[in-house]
Amino acid sequence: MMLIPTEKRLDADTPPEKRGQMRDGVRLLTYWSDSGRIVHGGFFQLAHQLEAGDVLVFNNSRTIPAELKTVDGIRVRLSREVEDGTWDGLILGESSKKLEFMHGLKALVTGPGTEPPLVRLVFSCSSSRLLRELYRQGDVIRYEHVARSWPLQDYQTVYASIPGSVEMPSAGRAFTWRMLAHLQKHGIRLAFVTLHAGLSYYGDDKWPNPALHPEAFSIEDEQAAIINDAKANGGRVIAVGTTVVRALETASDGNTIIPQAGVTSLYLSRTSKLTAVDGLLTGFHEQEASHIDLLQTFAGEEGVKAIYKEAVAKRYLWHEFGDMNLLMRQERS
């Protein structure tokens, strides 16, 4: 579904803090799917769209510098850890099966990855040492809409605590500690899950197939209890990002969230029935099929078209440094 021509999109290539704003100074477009009502405001006003007893669920995975460069200058982007020392990755350019990086780090291409164009990489060390090498010689993965390099800290949410995502779970980037405290003061509860996000784009107009794009996740007992208690007492569950939707719907038994750790390949389409999540906070991103399909589980096809048409007309900013979109399934009086 083509929503808008690319040339009409306003890509944000600079963090808000570098363009004279606070992190939470971006804009917020709120859409209620039952009424079709759209409200514009500032992201710091998010509490006005929620109610006491609602729970915001965040992904606390921390972004790692997941792009390496071989001694020959070939760029290698990691996508996900398959097992200790073994990763799916994307090689940008022609290379041999033997890859050599700085400081003695090596990797062997042993075959195809989970889906093309990913390949399976076996490194010469454990994943714990590889993580140290990534922080030593790796770089942040960035795409064409970001013209220059920004520090790793600009690709972290303030609450990120568990390293593992090769790209920032960007829906939570605009939150500040001040804003989190403000939300709690208004009776809105906070819960955290972990899902290590893989590559969202392979280049040359190729995006991952969600069914072939497994991602590791975990939900602890205490966090599941917060979510389940909110739901049982009439509160709404709002996922901060599509990664959280994927984790919660995977862990749902239809009524409650079951604490667990594992890998999910869940693909949510417009016909999927959501049992855990009542709302979604997300940014404005590429119009590739899986992302749009997931948005349609909340707003339907016409609703998503209306959201993106309004976002273009009001000049909202796209991508991880851009503005925010709250989709709620039902408006309360």
UniProtKB/TrEMBL annotation:
Keywords: Cytoplasm, Isomerase, Queuosine biosynthesis, S-adenosyl-L-methionine, Transferase. The keyword Isomerase applies. Gene3D superfamilies: QueA-like. It holds the Pfam family Queuosine_synth. GO terms for molecular function: S-adenosylmethionine:tRNA ribosyltransferase-isomerase activity. GO terms for biological process: tRNA queuosine(34) biosynthetic process. This is S-adenosylmethionine:tRNA ribosyltransferase-isomerase. Transmembrane segments: none annotated. InterPro entries: QueA, QueA_dom1, QueA_dom2, QueA_sf.
